[in-house]
Design brief:
The structure holds 2 protein chains of 2 kinds. By secondary structure, chain A is an alpha/beta fold. Chain A is built from 10 helices and 20 strands. In chain A, helix 1 packs across helix 10. Chain B folds into 2 domains: about 50 residues, no CATH class; about 100 residues, 2-Layer Sandwich (GMP Synthetase, Chain A, domain 3). Chain B has a 3-stranded antiparallel β-sheet, with no helix packed on it. A two-stranded antiparallel sheet of chain B has the order 3-4. The longest helix of chain B has 23 residues. The chains are: A alpha/beta, B alpha+beta. At the A-B interface, helix 8 of A face helix 3 and helix 4 of B.
């Protein structure tokens, strides 16, 4: 059986970042990728998607952004091209077209079974990402058979959906972007709004993510957080590439807002009556974030950051948002579930899951020789962003190296 | 400029330590977190009835209090009834107000905000055509509920707003009203 020191599963930004770090440390390894490098970016994203991190933040291993538009936002196609460039500059040991079927502990570490054969390794790094399948509520099954249902992982463009009204469920980044795209394509969109994280794209002359870095929000280590579990479950920011797309702007485009989708029963969709508080809460959290930025800016460099002259208006609410919609009667032909994603570790044959089936890890370390990357707030809030992979890879590679050295010394 | 860190303390009569302790304990023992609340209603006459409340199930066993509580209900004279007590609808509004008020108190204390006074006005709109069977498109219950808080506290307006938002987020009665719930009825 083929042997190596480390197996990395997944050739996205996390897998490549880890491979890069292991090469620096002279640690023998293979990267296994079920499809092509950056497979999810290539095949599981929609046509018009632009990244929500500014270009300057989108470094890949050995390839910092050096283009002319550091403050702009690249399209997913441009990102894929950068991955190809990254591959042309560094020779990563990648086996593409290789699907991992199982990973199980063995005498010398781990046995990795793939559809191309088996391997033994001392260490395994799971870098398959946090978005392997969409989190769709169980009650979605109760929708009529005629209803076309999709998610941001399979949706590509408006023409995928039939003519008629669309129900978009979820108001984080994907939901907002796709609600706008579908409304502007001529479909009447109803957007079901649950908990979400509102923030402006820019504030006082700088990008919001840059501010979050400066004030320490994206650089607080996971173990320094009092309530890590809660923070890991926070909805991802409702940010898009362009200047602030928010619920007010969507309503100006004609999108109807309703509360969180709480049920379907064949014909009717039901929505919670808590939309007012959901939006008020999101507005309040945004106000607190901006106040933290103000406190920082005023203390450190008030002259460099002029006070904001166009602050975001509070979320305008419809007077009596609808609680039920008869989807069939009103001509809804599709539902887009922008309700989040979940990772898939069903191939891991080891008892590292909690009562709710979630993988347990300590800042990316599952157990001796077993690592995970790219999960929400793995080590920092930026762990799921492109530029966060590098730092996490460095730490985990060091951990792996220490572990291997100790094993050799023993 | 140095910013001094002030530890805010408040006493709104809430034992926050006990609540946080309960939260930790129940995180470790999920079955103990399963509670069942009860009310036992006796009909008198017409729309007049009395609900008695005492025992409940929680922390893995039956719980009871030294004395029970009574809540009567009736319909007003306008409904050609005996007007002995509040209507069930008003009791629901009172329940919402109480749940949110209690929440405000404990969240405020947890956040070190001293409350001086809290008063909550609740209104629920209802089209009688629903319950009277006049119009099938009109629902039986409230079409809209408005809650207005009057809060005097040692904190800026945004902090108070945050407390109010959080109280709704964690309110049982708010959830009961704004989300669907199953009711199953049997006859003994």
């Amino acid at each position: 059986m083929k042997r190596t020191t480390a197996v990395i599963i997944g050739a996205g930004q996390s897998g490549l970042a880890m491979s890069f770090e292991l090469m620096q440390r002279g640690i023998d390894h293979i990267v296994l990728e079920r499809g092509e490098v950056a497979n999810s970016w290539r095949h599981e994203r929609w046509d018009s998607l632009k990244l929500l991190t500014p270009n300057r933040m989108n470094a890949l291993p050995g390839l910092p952004y050096a283009g002319p538009d550091a403050d702009g936002f690249m399209s997913v196609r441009e990102l894929v091209t950068r991955f190809d460039t990254c591959l042309s500059r560094t020779s990563f040991p990648i086996d593409t077209g290789t699907t991992v079927l199982s990973v199980a502990p063995s005498d010398r570490g781990y046995r990795v079974q793939t559809d191309q054969g088996a391997l033994e390794a001392n260490a395994v790094v799971m870098a398959t990402g946090a978005c392997n399948h969409p989190k769709i509520p169980a009650f979605a099954k109760a929708a009529s058979d005629d209803m076309v249902q999709t998610s941001p992982l399979s949706y590509k463009r408006p023409s995928d959906l039939p003519e008629g009204k669309t129900l978009v469920v979820g108001a984080s980044a994907s939901g907002l972007q796709l609600a706008r795209e579908l409304q502007l394509s001529g479909r009447q969109v109803t957007l079901a709004v649950g908990n979400h994280t509102r923030m402006p794209r820019r504030y006082r002359g700088r990008d919001i993510l840059e501010w979050m870095g400066r004030i320490g929000v994206t650089s607080t280590l996971y173990s320094d957080l009092p309530d890590l579990d809660r923070v890991r479950r926070l909805p991802s920011p409702s940010l898009t590439a362009d200047d602030t797309l928010d619920l007010n702007l969507l309503q100006e485009f004609g999108v109807e807002l309703v509360g969180r989708c709480v049920g379907l029963d064949g014909e009717e969709a039901h929505f919670a009556g808590s939309l007012a508080n959901t939006c008020a809460s999101a507005d309040l959290k945004m106000t607190r974030l901006l106040a933290s930025i103000d406190a920082f800016a005023d203390q450190h460099n008030p002259k460099d950051c002029p006070a904001d002259d166009a602050p975001l208006a509070p979320t305008q609410l419809p007077d009596g948002p609808r609680l039920r919609i008869n989807l069939a009667r009103e001509g809804f032909t599709s539902i887009l579930w922008a309700t989040g994603f979940a990772p898939d570790f069903t191939w891991l044959r080891a008892p590292h899951f909690d009562a709710k089936g979630r993988l347990m890890h300590d800042g990316g370390v599952v157990t001796k020789g077993l690592y995970v990357m790219g999960l929400p707030y793995l080590r920092y809030r930026r762990s799921t962003l492109l530029f966060g992979a590098g730092d996490d890879a460095m730490f985990l590679a060091n951990h792996m190296q220490l572990g291997l050295e100790r094993a050799c010394a023993a | 400029m140095k910013t001094a860190t002030m530890t805010k303390t408040a006493d709104n009569g809430v034992n926050v330590e006990a609540l946080l302790g309960a939260r930790d304990a129940l995180t470790q023992a999920p079955p103990a977190a399963q509670f069942t609340w009860r009310a036992n209603c006796q009909w008198f006459n017409g729309a007049h009835s009395r609900s008695t409340i005492n025992g409940y199930f929680g922390l893995g066993e039956e719980q009871s209090r030294a004395t029970g509580f009574d809540i009567e209900s009736d319909h007003p004279a306008l409904f050609a009834a005996t007007d002995n007590a509040a209507t069930p609808l008003e009791i629901v509004l009172a329940a919402l107000a109480s749940c949110l008020t209690g929440g405000v108190a404990s969240i405020a204390q947890h956040r070190g905000v001293q409350l001086n006074s809290v008063q909550v006005e609740v209104e629920g709109d209802m089209d009688m055509s629903g319950v009277l069977g006049i119009d099938p498109d009109v629902r039986n219950g409230f079409s809209a509920i408005r809650v207005k808080f009057h809060i005097d506290a040692d904190a800026p307006a945004t902090e108070i707003a945050g407390i109010v938002a959080q109280s709704q987020k964690r309110s049982a009665v708010y959830d009961i009203i704004t989300n669907p719930g199953n009711v199953r009825t049997t006859i003994a």
